[in-house]
Design goal:
The structure holds 2 protein chains of 2 kinds. By secondary structure, chain A is mainly alpha-helical. Chain A is about 75% helix and about 0% strand. In chain A, helix 6 packs across helix 8 and helix 8 packs antiparallel against helix 10. In chain B, strand 1 and strand 2 form a beta hairpin. Chain B is mainly α. Chain B starts with a helix and ends with a helix. The chains are: A mainly alpha, B mainly alpha. At the A-B interface, helix 1, helix 3, helix 4, helix 5 and helix 6 of A face helix 1, helix 2, helix 4, helix 5 and helix 6 of B.
């Protein structure tokens, strides 16, 4: 084979392999979603959303308490974490220049962004559960909040940096104090981008299981908003039910898995659409 | 500059006071990030001390695990963590590289965003879903179709045979590694894509101009130009793989017995924490959990710091 034909052959092989790699990635995604639909859709009836988690060995039941608990803790975690993240991100974007601490914060934040979430669970166990003496929904919400913070910091800083400097300068020229410029001009211009960041953070924490395993644990019963006690939550229920040999539990686990995954995908895709609206694409 | 002009003009002193408050608030929460990391490390060290005192350095190399007799060694968990992540990298890096080549060099422009988004959605799927899927779909499939084949072929080769011996159980280190490889795929791909896009077009066009094929351009121009960034992306993926918890917990088999075969069940640090933390009923058992958490943190934080360092070097290079 002459060198030219050989080079073309190598090229074609590598390009075909790269096409195959892409196909594998997409097929894998499709396979997971298909399995969820196939196994989960049968569990989704009225009972699923209106009844609480059944005991082992019993029939029927639903995941009302778990869905409710997840919503509460995710909401609380976001309400605590998002404002902290937005303010810290504001510091990095608006006041960070020339401050020696800013690069350190940025560096540490990027590490926290990828750090194992189970470590956050261990930390909250030591910091809250041991001190309070019992598992609680508060501890779970705090753990989720800690995971929200770095996500929001990163997107907030990026989005604020996209706001053109001339906009700020125009406001400064009118004698506006800096806090007013940031709150009423920069935030408003970057609103959609920052909201995207918060949505992505919500999507990220709503599936988090590891930080909840030994902070809120689980609760078989409906206890409303009893935050000072163990609370049922979707990820831990899915974990326990899927790992058990009980068929009814497994059925509910698949249903829960389907609900949580599609909720997260919808959140994720709407966050992306929102970001694209104003051209804040990646 | 603008600040100085405004300050000298002396207008709106109330606004200035609020400025100070606002700035202080943002500064406080930015510092909170440092405090969180410091707090995490401090809490882990504090919790781990009793175990580290009792078992010493042997904790890392010892492979006995007996909660009843209160004897603990972390070696199988550390080994499992490293091996599963290594398998994940072995499969994940070539796949991510292929996808990044496809998206940056081959894909028609209108398809770039949809395909890129689909791959990124792999990162949105919660870890626990990968776990369920791995346990109920992938593990049975590997058990009946792939593992017997591996035992017969690779298991019979002298030097590496010990990696592929034993009964095909479905769950085990290999399964965990495969699941991890798909989970880290979007993270590595996204970094590779980003850094590939930073290669100046003129460099690539010069190579195409002298007759290089697409593969030769990628291999000889794009890859050397983006080497730091690519390694950074791989390290980022590795950091994720090392700390991944739920997916691994489902498919690893959770056995503290040290086995060399990749088909055998094992455990990782994170899977041990997920399974046993709430069962740790004695002070020393609990302290062992903290010690495992500390080891995992040290490993992942170092890997992630290296990743971040390389990516920021790449950014500076791209900016110049």
């Amino acid at each position: 084979m002459n060198p030219y034909a050989r080079r073309r052959l190598v090229n074609m092989t590598v390009l075909s392999l790269s096409l195959a790699a892409t196909a594998i990635g997409i097929i894998w995604l499709a396979a997971i979603l298909w399995t969820l639909l196939e196994n989960g859709i049968a569990a989704l009836d009225v009972d699923f959303f209106t009844l609480d988690t059944p005991g082992s060995g019993s029939d029927g039941g639903g995941l009302r308490n778990a869905i409710f608990g997840s919503l509460i803790m995710t909401a609380l975690g976001t309400f605590v974490g998002a404002p902290i993240g937005i303010l810290a991100g504001t510091f990095l974007a608006e006041f960070g220049r020339g401050n020696p601490l800013a690069p350190a914060v940025r560096f540490i934040n990027d590490i926290l962004l990828s750090a194992p979430s189970i470590i956050v669970g261990v930390f909250v166990y030591e910091a809250m559960v041991l001190r309070m003496g019992h598992y609680s929904a508060w501890a779970g919400a705090v753990a989720l909040g800690i995971i929200v913070i770095p996500v929001v910091i990163r997107t907030t800083e990026n989005m604020l940096n996209l706001v053109p400097g001339s906009l700020r300068e125009a406001a400064f020229a009118l004698g506006t104090p800096k806090w007013k410029v940031i709150v009423f001009i920069t935030y408003r211009a970057a609103m959609q981008g920052m909201l995207t960041g918060v949505l992505l953070a919500v999507a990220r924490v709503s599936g988090e299981t590891a930080p909840l395993l030994f902070t809120v644990v689980n609760n078989q019963f409906w206890q409303g908003v009893a935050m000072d006690a163990q609370m049922a939550n979707l990820p831990v229920v899915i974990f326990q039910f899927a790992m058990s040999p009980d068929h009814n539990w497994q059925r509910l686990a698949w249903g829960g898995a389907l609900v949580i995954t599609f909720a997260i995908l919808i959140l994720n895709i709407s966050a992306r659409l929102l970001a694209n609206l104003r051209g804040f694409s990646k | 500059m603008v600040d100085a002009v405004i300050r000298e003009s002396g207008i709106g002193t109330r606004g200035r006071a609020l400025d100070v408050v606002f700035r202080a608030a943002t500064f406080f929460f930015a510092i909170l990030v440092l405090v969180i990391l410091f707090g995490i490390v401090a809490a882990l060290i504090d919790g781990a001390l009793p175990a580290l005192k009792q078992f010493g350095f042997a904790f890392i190399v010892d492979s006995s695990w007996d909660p009843v007799k209160q004897i603990f060694g972390a070696f199988p968990a550390i080994y499992g963590t490293l091996i599963t992540s290594f398998i994940a990298m072995l499969i994940g890096i070539p796949l991510a590289f292929g996808i990044a080549i496809f998206i940056t060099e081959l894909c028609p422009p209108w398809l770039k965003r949809p395909i890129g988004t689909l791959i990124e959605l792999l990162a949105a799927i919660p870890s626990i879903i990968y776990g369920i899927w791995g346990l109920f779909v992938l593990a049975p499939m590997l058990q009946s179709h792939v593992q017997p084949f591996l035992v017969e072929t690779l298991g019979a080769i002298p030097l590496i045979g010990f990696l592929f011996e034993g009964a095909p159980l479905g769950v085990g280190m290999l399964t965990a590694g495969i699941i991890l490889s798909i989970m880290v795929l979007p993270f590595i791909t996204s970094v590779m894509r980003d850094v590939f896009e930073t290669v100046p077009t003129v460099l690539k066009e010069s190579a195409y101009g002298i007759g290089a094929t697409t593969f030769e351009v990628v291999w000889n121009i794009v890859l050397p130009y983006t080497r730091t960034g690519v390694i950074g992306g791989v390290m980022l993926g590795l950091g994720r793989a090392l700390g991944e918890t739920m997916a691994v917990t489902f498919v690893i088999g959770n056995s503290h017995q040290f086995m060399t075969s990749l088909l055998a069940p094992g455990t990782t640090i994170s899977a041990t924490l997920a399974n046993e933390f709430s069962e740790a009923d004695t002070p020393i058992y609990l302290s062992v959990m903290f010690a495992l958490g500390l080891i995992l943190s040290v490993i992942t934080l170092l890997v992630l710091a290296a990743a971040k360092f390389m990516l920021s070097r790449m950014e500076r290079q791209g900016g110049s």
